[in-house]
Amino acid sequence: MDIQTSFLDRLFESGLLIDTGIDGLYGRSGQFEDVISAFERLIYGFGGADGAEAIRFPPGMNRALFEASGYMKSFPQLAGTVHSFCGSEFDHTSLLKCMEVGEDWTKDQEATDIVLTPAACYPLYPTVAKRGPLPESGALFDLQSYCFRHEPSKDPARQQLFRMREYVCMGTKGHVTDFRQSWMDRGLEMMKAVGLDVVIDVANDPFFGRAGKMLANNQRDQNLKFELLIPITSSANPTACMSFNYHQDAFGAKWGLNFADGSVAHTACVAFGLERIALALFHHHGLNTAEWPQSVRKALWG
Ligand code: ATP
Ligand code: ZN
Ligand code: MG
Questions:
Q1: Are residues 167 and 105 in the same domain?
Q2: Which one of 11, 149, 239 would you pick to mutate in the ligand 1 pocket, going by the greatest count of ligand atoms within 8 A of its CB?
């Protein structure tokens, strides 16, 4: 049995994660959620004074806006769509018959206007663009959402439905790159406060296909994405628990995020993988929070 499977099994045995029969789709216990709530308070403690506007979207987004985002160009393998039955009574009868004999009943499901949110910040850009020109001082948002990615895995840190807490900054190049740097510094401080050894390294997104290789190399060469890595299921391949993304003016241009003088805003987002951070804590400090080091408990629960 490999190490990954055994950590997942221990999480199931302890009840922290609850098996649903699907890899990457888990229930969470009260104790697991308590760690996530405590860590979110810690995040707020580090960023609350910045005055970010809090917005919460549900875990589904407007399909037309998702299409406009270009997600299907870059990550078609990860996307999840919501389909529904839209037929007549006659169609219903044949649907039930299909299910009864174990045939594929999903082939006649029709796409709805909703897709599953792939990253917490996706619904934000068109929302802010609709408000009109950005203030000269820029804008800062605090988001949290369940996100879907079709990447089933036995690695408990790679889930299909997981939560991302994000800060998103819009402004000038200098403004948003300073924002990103300040969260890299804070990320290191926060993880130190909860007793986790971390490194930050340059990274790239898993762009699809052969053309994607070039996009990934370009992203790396330009230092557009960094990750804060913590060993969870492997020390050779530590897990990305935060990411720090500079989009240049790509999202600004795509969505029409402009200043009053018509110039295009730059954007950056900083994402915390909340389940991954909780898993890193359970992995390093043990499966029972009552037995965690005093300093870690103090940082999380005061
Ligand atoms: P990875 O390289 O591990 O796939 P990513 O580059 O896809 O990570 P981002 O797209 O930057 O990650 O997402 C922001 C954060 O969300 C990540 O830093 C991570 O903490 C978390 N995250 C991403 N994918 C998953 C997943 N499948 N399960 C749990 N958390 C995830
Ligand atoms: Zn983002
Ligand atoms: Mg990924």
A1: no
A2: 149
Of 300, 62, 51, 83, whose CA–CA distance to 196 is shortest? 300
275 CB within 6 A, ligand 1? yes
Report pLDDT for 263: 98
Give the ligand with the smallest distance to the CA of 121: 2
Whether ligand 1 lies within 6 angstroms of the CB of 151 is answered as yes
**Mean pLDDT, residues 160-188:** 98
Same domain, 127 and 229: yes
Average pLDDT over the chain, rounded to an integer: 96
Q: How far is the CA of 87 from the centre of ligand 2 (A)?
A: 37
Domain with residue 153: its CATH number is 3.30.930.10
DSSP class of residue 52 equals P
The atom number, within ligand 1, closest to the CA of 228 reads 18
Q: What is the pLDDT of residue 4?
A: 54
Q: Is 233 in the pocket of ligand 1 (CB under 6 A)?
A: no
Instruction: State whether 47 and 59 are in the same domain.
Output: yes
Indicate which atom in ligand 1 lies nearest the CA of residue 225.
11
Domain count, the chain: 2
Residue 206 has pLDDT above 80, yes or no: yes
pLDDT digits (tens, 9 = 90+) for 56-70: 999 999 999 999 999
Burial class, 92, CB count within 10 angstroms (exposed 0-12 / middle 13-18 / buried 19+): exposed
SS3 190: helix
ipTM over 0.90: yes
pLDDT tens for 256-265 read 999 999 999 9
Q: Which atom of ligand 1 is nearest to the CA of 227?
A: 18
Residue span of the structural domain in which 20 resides = 7-79+118-301
